[in-house]
Amino acid sequence: MKKLLIFSLLLLALTVQGQTARTFKIDLTDESHVVCFLPEKPSGRAIVGIPGGGYSVLSNTHEGTQWSNWLNQQGIAYFVVNYRLPNGDRTRPIGDVEKTFRIVRDSAAVWGIQPRDVGIMGFSAGGHLASVISTLSDYEVRPDFTILFYPVISMDERLSHKYSCLNFLGAEGQKDPALVRKYSTQNAVKRHLTPPAIILMSNDDRLVPPVTNGVAYYSAMRNAGNECSMYIYPAGDHGWGVGPWFKYHDQMLNDLGNWLNNHKAPKADALRVACIGNSITDGHGIDMAPQHGYPALLQQKLGEGYWVKNFGVSARTQLNKGDHPYMEETAWRDAQAFKPDIVIIKLGTNDSKPQNWQYGSEFKKDLQQLVTTLNPSLAVSAKGKKAKKSKKGQPAVQAGPKIYLCTPIPAFKSTWDINDQVITNEIIPVQQEVAKEYGLTVIDLHTLFADDSDKVQSDGIHPNDKGVRKMAEIIANAVKEGQ
Questions:
Q1: Which of 53, 348, 92 is CA-nearest to residue 208?
Q2: Phi and psi based region of residue 457 (left: phi greater than 0; alpha: psi -120 to 50; beta: remaining)
Q3: Is the per-residue pLDDT at 12 higher than 50?
Q4: Radius of gyration of the chain (CA)
Q5: Are residues 118 and 98 in contact, defined by beta-carbon separation less than 8 angstroms?
Q6: Contact predicate 198/228, CB 8 Å
Q7: What is the pTM of this model?
Q8: Strands across the sheet with 306-312, in order?
Q9: CA quadruple 298, 303, 304, 306: dihedral positive or negative?
Q10: How confident is the model at residue 398 (pLDDT cuts 50, 70, 90)?
Q11: What pLDDT, on the 0 to 100 scale, is given for residue 399?
Q12: Rounded to whole angstroms, how far apart are CA atoms 342 and 306?
């Protein structure tokens, strides 16, 4: 019996060790590298690990390589970044992590990774670096989900870990309020654009105050309506990582494992749908709009064969001379980097305001610019030449995303000086003209909502819960018919 037990334990040990199929190192610079752990049975998921150490050393064992066993058992590829310490030059660690994301996504097919299921996991100061990449980096190198262990979030040394702040920003940077605010990443969270996150901390952390750091990040995420979970354990102080000495070690792994299992990535071959627009797309007045706005409901109606992302930003205009031009937004850059197969454009409502429509003569040109930037094959020059015609005189079939142009829903009140007469008589005709010129599909929400004043909020502008459901249904039907 004793021999059988020993044999079973040895077999179990061999099985666990076998979960890592390959380990290797990739140099990032002369001073930095990434250690790679590929699982025996890849799930398609990957995590980039960012050890802590106050931006003065790297705690890359229990906050780094020792995570490989557990993650590889879950089928998760793991990449530990031994990044350059900033010494006041924040571009050094940021550049190393961004380069790692490019390597992982560029090599995804070879390593059995779904390139849009790549997360980041950071500890303490590494948690700050992970939050910087999650909130401030470009879409191409931004993670798809974020795991933060007892993170430094604030760069205000009065609220955070003093030496992490000094080492990251430098002594001069710490004197610059704008820089401190920018890299206090609770201020950088963006609705729809900042990836889902889980935050794990100890209540008795004496090194990095939880309330002004991890809790502040959670609050910013929740206020934006973004998906975020937070676990605060009764004790453990700071820096426990995957160390077995942490009293709540098993519970922590169970919590993290459940969160990862319930965070599903889109199917690799899903059709990508980009929803571009103003506050109606953004979800103004809809609580937890990232989960309950029209793009989220559109995702439900279209199903897993589609991947719908919300790139709406409140108050934005189609007009580039408007008070808040959409094409100057991070969301616009993200929408292009998303490389959509289908685009739903719903702009124009805010353009009807007097301060914006004074530039109405440029509305067509600006709409043309947006459309042809999304799909350059539509072949419209900056001078407004018409799209190439087929032999039958119809717009030629173009490569690139299929674009749906939504007319604004009616403005039942003139709130914020939004003018339905301008929408009806001037904006919609231009939209229809551009759609005809380029062979775009028009979804006439203005007509379809004409008798639905009960489906808008008290401001008479934004759809309520009934209204966003109707929008999602109309747009889903149009998309399905167009496939």
A1: 53
A2: beta
A3: no
A4: 25
A5: no
A6: yes
A7: 0.91
A8: 306-312, 271-277, 342-346, 402-406, 441-443
A9: negative
A10: low
A11: 76
A12: 10
